[in-house]
Design goal:
The protein is α+β, with helices and mostly antiparallel strands. About 20% of the residues lie in helices and about 40% in strands. The protein is elongated, with a radius of gyration of 23 Å.
Length: about 170
C-alpha cells in the first residue's frame, strides 16, 4: 500500500515528494519524502515486511550513535540512509515507596533495585534503608537487598533508616 502510494505520487511528479530509503531494524524501507510522522514510518516498515508492531517504540539512530525517541505524532524530515530502531515497549510498573510513585521497568526487581529506582526518582531514602512491602492484610514483610519481588501495579513499600543501637 505504501509502495503503491509512492508509485502514484512519483509518476504524477507531485512537487517536492520523492522516494527516500531509510533503514528500520537494519531492513530498507521506502518512504515518501520530504517528511513522515513516526507512526507512518512504522506502518510503512510493517507493510514492507519489517517484523515490528504498531505499539513498538521508534528511535532514530543519530550520527554519533546515540538514539533519539520519535513519537508517533512527531514529523521527521527524511533523508536517505537514515537509521531507525523499533523495539517492543518496556513493561513499566508503578509502585509506591514512602507514599511516592516510582516507575520500575520489568517483571521483577530486587530490594536493591527498588531502592535504587526510588532514590533516582527523588524518594528521600538511602541504599542502606530497610525496605518493607506493605501487604493487603495490613501487615508488612521485609524485602532484603537480594530478595526478588514480582512486580505488579499498586505494590506499596516503606523504606526506613536502619536502627542504630550500637
Amino acid at each position: 500500500m505504501a509502495t503503491e502510494r509512492a508509485d502514484i505520487l512519483e509518476t504524477e511528479g507531485l512537487g517536492r515528494n520523492h522516494l527516500v530509503t531509510v533503514k528500520v531494524n537494519e531492513r530498507p524501507v521506502k518512504l515518501l519524502g520530504p517528511r513522515e510522522m513516526g507512526e507512518q514510518i512504522k506502518i510503512a516498515a510493517i507493510e514492507q515486511d519489517v517484523q515490528i508492531g504498531n505499539d513498538y517504540l521508534l528511535d532514530q539512530v543519530l550520527h554519533d550513535g546515540t538514539h533519539r525517541r520519535v513519537e508517533d505524532h512527531e514529523p521527521v524530515e527524511l533523508q536517505d540512509q537514515m537509521v531507525f530502531v523499533a523495539r517492543k515497549p518496556e513493561h513499566v510498573v508503578i509502585i509506591t515507596v514512602n507514599e511516592q510513585s516510582v516507575n520500575l521497568i520489568g517483571h521483577s526487581a530486587s530490594g536493591t533495585e527498588i531502592k535504587a529506582a526510588a532514590i533516582a526518582q527523588g524518594v528521600a531514602i538511602q541504599p542502606n534503608f530497610v525496605l518493607q512491602e506493605e501487604l493487603p492484610n495490613g501487615t508488612s514483610r521485609i524485602v532484603g537487598d537480594h530478595d526478588v519481588v514480582r512486580l505488579r501495579e499498586h505494590l506499596r513499600f516503606t523504606a526506613i533508616a536502619p536502627d542504630d543501637n550500637s
